[in-house]
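Contributing new records

If you add data, match the layout below exactly. Sequence lines come first and carry their own label; structure lines follow with theirs. Keep one chain per record. Anything else will be rejected by the validation script.
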Amino acid sequence: MAYSASHRFARIAATKIRPFANLIRGRRAGEAVELLKYEPNRGARMLEKVLKSAMSNAEDQGARNVDRMLVIDARANGGPMFKRIMPRARGMAYMIKRRFAHINVAIDAPPAVTKEAVAKE
């Protein structure tokens, strides 16, 4: 069973979070938290909080060995934008887009290794 957490309308652009989401996807949850802890970026802090929330959700619902669960999904999708106008020279106006992001993280137990799977190899 997958356990997930999300942070919607995070006040940061999704492009600043995506490299960290790609970094932790497919890793164990405990290892992913350690990786994000030492990154000096604000996006890494936000993703770390969402990952810890997903781990807490799993623990609350009775999952064991939460640190060894795999990060099966880590996404940062674009959210809505505030559009503002910046006055420029000669009566022109530039658009300023203040971007938001939706951060989603899902963790799940690693697949169990069966005797049949080992025998096939």
